[in-house]
Amino acid sequence: MRLDVVTIFPEYLAPLDLSLIGRARAAGLVDLRVHDLREHTTDRHRTVDDAPLGGGAGMVMRPEPWGPALAEVVRAGRADGLAGPPHLLVPSPAGQPLTQQVVHELAAQPWLAFACGRYEGVDERVLEEAAEAMPVTPVSLGDYVLNGGEVAVLAIVEAVVRLLPGVVGNPASLVEESHADGLLEAPVYTRPAVWQGREVPEVLLSGHHARIARWRREQSLARTARRRPDLLAALDPAVLDAADVAFLATLGWHVHGGRLSRR
Ligand code: 6GU
User: Fold this and answer.
1) Which residues line ligand 1 (CB under 6 A)?
2) Which residue's CA is the closest to the ligand 1 atom numbered 8?
3) Which pLDDT score, from 0 to 100, does residue 119 have?
4) Within 13 Å and on the Cβ side, how many CA atoms surround 189?
5) Could you give the 3-state DSSP secondary structure of residue 95?
6) To which H or E segment does residue 214 belong?
7) What is the pLDDT of residue 69?
8) Which residues of the chain have a pLDDT value below 50?
9) Distance from C-alpha of 86 to C-alpha of 115, rounded to nearest angstrom
10) HEC profile for 128-175?
11) What is the pLDDT of residue 78?
């Protein structure tokens, strides 16, 4: 997978040399390139921002350097034999929420590019113009505000790259984790069986695989009901078996009109 990141702070992306992502890059599974937007400024002060037209607080990223910066990303990818264009992601608190489902869709793409905004955001015409040449998706990590897109890109790249074949050592771990099936995962434990007087749930030491699977399933349902009732309400009841439905009823959740709800 090819990844291009355009930013005014290339150093912010340094952690992508580390750990699992760093190894995936070294192994040639991902070709990640970071580009400095300021290389595409033409004025003496290498200005990338200006005041918002119409007034308001903060600064907006000027459009001028973005055209050539994105054109250079596309040109270089083509020269490297990519059947372009890339899918351009624009991190923004005003973007569409990034979910594990979206992450899976992104992991299936051959080429992603990221336009990191700082300040109050990027002049909207940059996105309009880019959208004539490539798919453009503003994405958000959640309902809070970061100072710029760089930290979001770190998160998005990690979420996507770990799904690529060969990156995570044991692919089974991707199936059991939170959000794989629309639920939060059950709590996990390791040795020692007693720590600070606290015991690991006895069922996990029983060796009884069916009982363990049922316990984990119920922990997963109960935790999701408590922490993320929105996920439970969005779940397709078709993924529930009779034991799930009976357990959820003990928590006050019932299937009604093809949906789960708490009554
Ligand atoms: Cl993707 N970018 C910024 N700047 N702030 C955010 C965000 C993204 N997601 C949540 N807050």
Assistant:
1) 91-93, 95, 139-142, 144-146, 148-149, 152
2) 92
3) 78
4) 15
5) strand
6) helix 209-227
7) 98
8) none
9) 12
10) HHHCCCCCEEEEECCCCCCCEHHHHHHHHHHHHHCCCCCCCCCCHHHH
11) 98
